[in-house]
Design goal:
189 residues; alpha+beta; three-stranded antiparallel β-sheet; two-stranded antiparallel sheet; globular
Length: 189
């Protein structure tokens, strides 16, 4: 089963570190073009990705755009069980003693019900806890540096991760541009 070239490029560009397993999850904001059945696209993506341990979940759908979470189940599940993350999410009302699906469903509810975007989503995306906490505490201001996320703690570690994520994206996008289809790309990731 193949997906459209446009969708393959979008997922590859935004999710390369997740596709290769160096990041637990990524977000994709997808336009809602006329005539495209997003549910069908998500099913097709899951058909291709689930065998690789990767899943796609729609977090919210608005009139113009949809927000998708692309995640590696085992990496995200393990990450959310680390003590500091688990404690933080529990304080925010997340059902951390339940399965991963329950936490993702709670995140969906938070996105749908919040006036302000729930910044704890950074924890789901594998951002360092201190940076997510710093972002929340400083309301996105007073950061030390900015790249794939706003950094409030270990700049050297963040810079190393930024470079790794960018190299990964560059390599996978290059393979796709050279003619590999999405299914072949997954086999090389």
């Amino acid at each position: 089963m193949n997906i459209s070239q446009d969708l393959a490029q979008t997922i590859t560009f935004h999710c390369a570190p997740t596709l290769t397993g160096i990041k637990p999850a990524s977000l994709v904001s997808r336009k809602n073009p006329w005539g495209v059945d997003l549910n069908s696209e998500i099913r097709q993506l899951n058909d291709l990705l689930n065998g690789h341990g990767i899943f796609v979940e729609r977090l919210c759908d608005c009139a113009q755009r949809n927000l998708l979470l692309v995640y590696r189940h085992h990496l995200l599940q393990r990450l959310l069980q680390t003590p500091r993350i688990r404690q933080f999410l529990q304080r925010e009302g997340y059902p951390v003693s339940s399965d991963l699906k329950a936490c993702i469903d709670f995140l969906k509810k938070r996105i749908g019900a919040s006036v302000e975007f729930p910044h704890e989503i950074g924890l789901f995306l594998g951002y360092p806890v201190d940076d997510v906490m710093g972002f929340i505490e400083h309301r996105g201001q007073n950061f030390r540096m900015c790249g794939h996320w706003k950094v409030y703690s270990d700049e050297a570690r963040a810079m190393s991760m930024f470079e790794r994520f960018s190299r990964c994206r560059e390599q996978l996008c290059k393979k796709l541009a050279e003619g590999l289809n999405f299914q072949q790309l997954l086999s090389t990731a």
